Prior knowledge:
The chain is an alpha/beta fold and 633 residues long. 38% of the residues lie in helices and 18% in strands. The chain starts with a helix and ends in a 16-residue tail after the last helix.
Amino acid sequence: xxxxxxxxxxxxxxxxGRKAYKEALLRGRYPYPQVLDxxxxxxxxxxxxxxxxxxxxxxxxxxxxxxxxxxxxxxDFLPLLDPDSEFAGKWVSLCEAHLGDEGIRDPIxxxxxFGRFYIQEGNKRVSVLRSYGAPxxxxxxxxxxxxxxxxxxxxxxxxFMQAFPKTKLYRTRFTQAxxxxxxxxxxxxxxxxxxxEDERRRFAAGYTYFQEPFLKLGGGxxxxxxxxxxxxxxxxxxxxxxxxLSQAELLKSVKAVWADVKALSEPIAVRTDTPEAKEENLxxxxxxxxxxxxxxxxxxxDQLPDQSDWARAHDLGREYLETVLEGRVDTQTFYxxxxxxxxxxxxxxxxxxxxxxxxxxxPPLIGACRKTAARHPxxxxxxxxxxxPYAGVRTYYSRIYEAKYIAxxxxxxxxxxxxxxxxxxxxxxxxxxSINAFALGAQLTNPRAEITLRWSCVEEDAMDALAWEGVxxxxxxxxxxxxxxxxxxxxxxxxxxxxxxxxxPYWHWGNVYTNxxxxxxxxxxxSLAAPEGQAVNYWWGxxxxxxxxxxxxxxxAGVRQLAGILRKGIIDGSIQPxxxxxxxKILHMDTLLSCVHGQIPKYxxxxxxxxxxxxxxxxYRDAIPPEKEDPIL
Length: 633
């Protein structure tokens, strides 16, 4: 490169730099590079570690270590000083070297903090390379480690630091902790896999390729990263797909999951209200049924009704739906299909037979639901689970804790000693709320009530263990349907060495399905949506008759009357087990009241059969490293 060409390059960079400087001032932004020493103090840093020489992305260079020379550069390190300055002369000499035989060989020296780089030596080298659009620069990096706090940004950064020795990725940053392990799984790697140089290059190429449609769809305006969006995409497609798709095909595929990408920046909308009855408008604008006024619905399950009480309860709900909405709904069933490709095939078959709405009745089917939803945006898909962050697949469940509150009040009224047992199922969303609601109900009628907690997911004989300890009143598993009375279900009393059921909460899935379908028939799918395209979780309770409580015939009249008063009060809203808590907080409750003697079990303490549901719906699921057979949540 000639000296004149280097001067021309400086002039072009100077023009861009001064333009960026003026725009920053007009927008009220700081016009120079940030200074690390002015951003952090010693109390904010837990320590530092030297990472050595590596290629760092120039786009992540945010500023300088100290204040010297910062006024010579715009915020993006383009020059601001006149062409006849000493600074400009040195810049031009570096520019000549950059494109000459010698090149810019010496690495810069910088500090890294929260994934951003702050230059200590080599500002002009950065400026020259940035003016040419170079993606990376060699640098000797010293990492400043922030003090640990519960802040999500700090947790995500610590997750990045833990993953960095394996991936050596600086461009790929997530906003949620645990995402790097999910990325490993999405790429088919074991959690501890150390990436090869070839794997890093291939991923970097795919990452850059994915970035274009992300930005084209407005991703730059969202409070998430390219990596966040890419991980959402990889939950439906494979990395091989990314490499093989044309840019137009990739854009179409990203559009198919864009609702889920946008939902990352919004909390899940927990809808506790049921749709109001309106004059039916056939099926709503979003459905195109073959026969006016009729909706085709498919039920998918990985369990068989004759082998699973859960599947049987939902199938009874399907039958109830057909009876109540006779002539308006026809149903298909696909039971006993394995999660994954077999479930996807069943969903495709259902759609091929005209299904416009799919109910997948267990959480393990969420992966098949998401992939089918991406392929068929015209079909509405719901999964029976809670707290799934996908706008493209809605979820539904029931507020069983309301009925547990009534059961607890019954237990407190009947307990002489105040010692009451409780057998919990799994440490999943909603279960801690049920335990606490039961305890509050017990203390409502017996202020001395204390709850002894055991878990059936930890010990198979939890009920007998409580009985052996001398506990005579025990809350056991709830009955799945009101016609399935098989002792010992629900709240039980031990009499003559035998369990006698007194009361049991139960689900009424028929009312859930009927309410959902009626809402669609009267107001369309969007009448059941949430604002801003959030992921939606329908969480219905006693007021919608999604749950209820069955009382034994020999329950004392006064206790029966009390249960009726509490039931009526919860339905009309005058009684609330957790009066100050929002539905989202109740659903995600992960602590227990002081009157509950026991704790939420750790994942490693669970029986093998209980671990899969904890991975999908556990209150601590984000802290469990995924396994290859798991869907990536």
